[in-house]
Amino acid sequence: MNSPPKRRIIIHREKRRTTYFSEPLSDEVGLDMVQIPGGTFLMGAPEDELHNRKSEQPQHSVTVPSFFMGRYPITQTQWHLVVGYPEVKRELKPDPSEFKGENRPVEQVSWQDAVEFCQRLSVKTSRSYRLPSEAEWEYACRAGTQTPFHFGETLTDELANYNATKVYGRGVKGQSRGKTTEVGQFPPNNFGLHDMHGNVWEWCQDDWHRNYKGAPEDGSAWVDDDSKNNQKVLRGGSWFNYPRGCRCAIRFNDTRGGFLSGGFRVVCVPVVAGRVPRAMDSS
Q1: What pTM does this model have?
Q2: Which residues form a coiled coil (predicted)?
Q3: How far is it, in rounded angstroms, from Cα 257 to Cα 241?
Q4: Short-list 124, 136, 131, CA closest to 23
Q5: Cis bond upstream, residue 86 (ω within 30)
C-alpha cells in the first residue's frame, strides 16, 4: 500500500542583495554585520494570530532607524576570541556552551555576560556594539513581512532548528534535532540574517514588561528607571521549542543572571568617532 504524499507547504523565499561589513576579531575570524535599512513596521502579534499571547499585544507601529546587526548569533569561536580581550566589568567563562562546536552559537550565556561581550568588543574596535533593542530585533526578524514567521505562515525543519514534532497551522511534522546547529545552515531572511527562528534564544537590551502598553515607538530599548526590575527579554525561540515558540512575535523573559539556552547577536551603530564601516555587497 502506497503511503500518502507529503502535503506541499508554500514558503515565501526571496533572494536580495545585502550590504555588510566584517569586523576582524583575529587574523582569521571576522564578525559579519549586515546593514538593516530603517523603516516602520507593526510590532507584536495580531489578535487573530495562532497561539498569540497577551504579552505580544497591543500590536503597534514602530519606526526604526538604520543599524547594523550580526548576520548570525555569536558563535563559540567568536566568544572565545572576545573573552581574550581586556575585561571591562566582569569575568567571562571561556567555554560556557553545552553543545560544543566552533561554528555553533554560544549558549548558556547570561544577559550580563552578553553585555560584557559587547563592551569588550566596543573597547577593542572603537565602535559602539550592544545588544539589540526588542523593537530592532523583531523588525530585523520580520524583514518586511507580517506573517508569523519571516518565511511565511508556517515553518519546517528544512528552514530552522526547532522542535518540529509539533506543527504550526498547516505545517507538517519533522524532526527534533535535540541540540544547536552550526550558524548559517538554514536560509536567511530578506535582510540576509540567519537563524532568527530557533537555534538559541537571543537576549535584548529591554527590561521585561507584561505587554506593549506604553512601549517606545522609536525603536529604542524599553528600560525602566527602577533598577528593581531584574527581568530581561529574550526573542526567537530555540532548538527545543515547538514552532509556536519561534514566531517573529514570541517573547520570553528571564533574570539577568542566566538562561540555559540563552545566546545573542550584536548590533552596531553606523558611526562612532568618525569611523564609518566599509560596507560590502553580497547577493
Answers
A1: 0.91
A2: none
A3: 21
A4: 124
A5: no
Alpha-carbon span 204 to 116, nearest angstrom: 13
CATH number for 18-275 (one of 3.90.1580.10, 3.30.499.10, 3.40.50.300, 3.30.1360.70): it is: 3.90.1580.10
Chain segment 135-153, per-residue pLDDT in tens: 999 999 999 999 999 999 9
173-178 CB contacts, 8 Å cutoff, 24+ apart: 176/239, 176/240, 177/239, 178/239, 178/240
Residues near 151 by beta carbon (within 8 Å), at least 6 away in sequence? 11, 12, 13, 159, 187, 189, 197
Q: Strand 201-207 vs strand 262-263: parallel, antiparallel, or unpaired? A: parallel
pLDDT digit string (tens) for 213-244? Answer: 999 999 999 999 876 778 999 999 999 999 99
* Cell digits of residue 260: 540555559
223 burial level (CB within 10 Å; 0-12, 13-18, 19+):
middle
Domain ranges of the chain: 18-275
Query: 58: which 3 cell numbers?
Result: 497591543
Q: With CA atoms as reference, report the closest residue to 223 among 238, 246, 206.
A: 206
